[in-house]
Prior knowledge:
Helix content is 44%, strand content 10%. With 623 residues, it is α/β, with parallel strands linked by helices. The radius of gyration is 45 Å and the shape is elongated. The strands form six sheets. The protein has a five-stranded parallel beta sheet, covered by helices on one side. A three-stranded mixed beta sheet has the order 14-15-16. It has three domains: 23-166, 3-Layer(aba) Sandwich (Rossmann fold), CATH 3.40.50; 171-352, Zinc Finger, Delta Prime, domain 3 (Up-down Bundle); 453-467 and 479-591, DnaA, N-terminal domain (GMP Synthetase, Chain A, domain 3), CATH 3.30.300. The longest helix has 17 residues, at 268-284. It contains 26 helices and 16 strands.
Amino acid sequence: MDQQYLVSARKYRPAAFASVVGQAHVTETLEHEVVSGRLAQALLFTGPRGVGKTTCARILARRINEVHTGEGLDYSLNIFELDAASNNTVDDIRQLIDQVRFAPQMGTYKVYIIDEVHMLSQAAFNAFLKTLEEPPAHAVFILATTEKHKVLPTILSRCQIFDFKRIGIGDIAEHLAWVAQQEGLTADPQALHAIAEKADGSLRDSLSIFDRIAAFAQGGTLTYELVRQNLQLVDRALFVQLWESIEAGDRASVLTAVHNVLDQGFDLQRFLMGFAGYVRELLLAHHPSTVALLDAPDSVKRGILDSASRVSAGRAATALKRLVAADAGYRAASNARWHVEVALLDLISDESVDEKKNPTSERVAELEAPAKRPQPSSPAPSEAAVPAPAPMAVPVEPAASFLQESEPIELAPVEPAASLPQMSEPIGPDPVLDEPVEVPLAPSPETVPVVNPVVRVRRTAFSLKDLESPSPAPIAVGAPLEQLGQEPDDSVAEVSTLVERRLRPVTQAALETAWLESAATLDEVPVIKAIVQQVKPVLEDDNGVRVSLENDLQEGYLNSVRDRILPFLRQALHNDSLKIRTEVQEGAVNARLVYTPDERYAFLLEKNPHLDEFRREFQLDIE
């Protein structure tokens, strides 16, 4: 080679603030500060890699002396660069501090650029604090870092901070087009856009990719296909075809697309996120305010708008959400191919598949099919002459919030009489239902029997044992509540015409026996069962059952099974007026509190005397 080759990142490094790409908010501020003489003694440039931090620091170092001394001079001796990644000790910082004391040989200012300043050690930062806060009048410090959070807050507080942003894809593509023109190359705009998108906001990375592809280009032409092959990019046409297959419900084409991607050697995760980016573009193309966010060449943007017109925004948003979730779980998948295939198949809606396989014949047949309803059994020959009256539904309102209605119990109709009159009259408010009930008038009680209505039975709180109980048999109106499967409750008014309450006298001994028997029904809750067995019920004069408990916790446990114990006691003692009252009295159950290990061992020894023999045989200690 006749002359040394320079990469584009060095060859086309900006020499003025006007040439810096995508950082106008920083360059304009720095130029105004230099011209006005309001420049701080320490500045910190922070931002992603390859966005121009060091370049702007060098331009600023030269501009400071050009403005205050004059142009056309070589100020390279006034600029000192220090790489903190390799010079991060206290001695390196002390050496820099010793150099700061001397005035510049030419110009007005000495500028110190410290790159990757976050790599300095803790001791080096501390040694640098005082000089950074109060340097000599001729010294200016410019610090650059990609990780501002690693810099000590004491250093940040002494610096004027400038945040560099990631460079946009459009700005990078425009700069690459200028570089291609300077190099005498012909570049496809879509190819330059693909390079800019691959660089991920870094201008230096985009220039490195540009140099590699330019060296591979035949005849000095950069095409999109050439860029796609070198950068291992999935063709956008594949994304378009894949989305059309998903919308059509063609699962075979989706699986074939994944196979082709693997066969060409592409990374499945990059393929998955590339397709997610295409779906996001479809979503952005639905609203005029978001169309401006589409960072794509005009030719590609027209195709996106055309495809988005056939897709709803909700459909695209749902698909994008599932693709992002699939990308999050990609690394945890044991089989990457299956994971991607399932994620893409999940985007196919069942409706599109059903419409493709089953056009309208099955839907029409479904609509024309008669509803399946239970048909009543055919009447007996003797009942054919007189139609049976329809069953009468008697609604029952719940008496309390803890009561709930069960399913209606269908009662078999009784054989009706020869004829029934059509007139009816109210018989007055029902004592339980508190509303008038209309019943048909019969000629006489002897000739017309009562027709059993559909009765809704109220029950107490739900219990798993209710599921095991067999279905109740048909019950006639006026039967006692015990036959209906409902225990008497205090909130339901006593109606002598409907229920004859049981009021057999109860003794204390019978109460204690029934109480222990009720505890046997609580095997599924051993803690509550132990509490019920431990306490002793006391019968009071008004048929109240008083139970003394140690604390509020035991009272809460007992109240949770009150609706099971009270009906059991009433049934066992044949007395529906029994009531349970609870009271909390500490020490009521003669419980003894034990604290030390010896007290606990003595307590257990009283219950099981053989425990001491067990301890001596195995030589166990009390801890």
